[in-house]
Amino acid sequence: MTKRVIIVQLFLLLTWVVGCGEKGTDFTAIRQALQERAYSKVEIKLEKLVGKQPQNIEAQSLLAVTYNRQNKTQKLEATVAKLRELGNPAIDKLIDIMKREQNMAEDMAKILTLIGKPAVDVLVPLLGNTTEYVREEAIQILTNIGAPAAERLIDALNSSDALIKSGAARILGNLGDKTAIKPLMAKIGDANSLVKVESAIALHKLGDKSHERIIIDGLSSDIVSVRRSAAVAIRDMVENPAVEPLLKAAKDSDIKVRSAIVQALGKVKDARVVAPLIEAIKTKDNTVQDSAVNALKAIGEPSVMPLIELVKQEQDIATLQKAIMTLGDIGDKRALGTLEKIYAESKQPLVKQEAAIALNKIE
Fold first, then answer.
1. What was the pLDDT predicted at 21?
2. What is the C-alpha separation between 158 and 351, in angstroms, rounded?
3. Residue 16 scores a pLDDT above 70
4. Is 165 inside any structural domain?
5. What is the rounded end-to-end Cα distance, in angstroms, of the chain?
6. Contact 131/99 with Cβ under 8 angstroms?
7. Does residue 346 lie in a domain region?
8. Residue 210 belongs to what domain range?
9. 140 and 212 share a domain?
10. Hey, is 284 helix, strand or coil?
11. Is 348 helix (H, G, I), strand (E, B) or coil?
12. What local confidence, expressed as pLDDT, does residue 84 receive?
């Protein structure tokens, strides 16, 4: 009798192990098929599976991904409704996939946004996540959820975690909820510089522009995330930024700070900003180069002679192309002689082509 019981138990254990293995293999194959964009195949398989196992969160989650990638809105919303019914375990699974599988992060963000308010309490702690893309995804999802998240975000301003506080401040500014003004004002004096700067930026978005000094001072912070937030805010919001802090920040060691500040310099009608923008064109980073080009175009006429000098002296082909293109877009006739000479004498086909395009724009 004992021997028979043991045999039965071993059989059941083996069946369980094999079943688990097949289940794991199925999901591995499904993920591979998603990467290969075999959406119809995945859809059929998962629909059969959730038909048998409606409580299978993994299957429901991946089915939602499949619908999302095919823009099958009604089916996506129906699946999201099922995930919502499954409660926090489903939300936890979606967040776990978002954190571990970056190739599905955008899908998870869409699904969590559709789930809406039930996901808010689980998402807010992610504002404190030290993995940048996870934190940024959480900020974007909560921003997209909008008003239903506002009350919880105002509460989060009192968190002991500075990242959560600063993230909540940023989102509240994005939401444009005036009820957040008073709680944000209380954070202007926060001991953490990121919280202070994000609160000032949020208040600026909500109409209180009396804290620009805090934003500008953020450019001098030792913390790179503070400098990034300040630089982007100055680029996007501050109408007449002071020149000196921007000139200093244009040499920042962080590429995101430099790029934003170089773009901000395009708003400054001051000849002093042209020289650093010319230097920015010479950098090897495409983002900074493109930002400098756009800024010099925005400045216009004061940029022309420095650009002409750059074209006359520059040996790097990529930099030369950018400078020629910028002269063409500005359209000042003073550049004609230099561009005609470049077109006639250059042995570089790409440079000759750019010169021809610029000349046609000016003439």
1. 37
2. 57
3. no
4. yes
5. 101
6. yes
7. no
8. 136-239
9. yes
10. coil
11. coil
12. 96
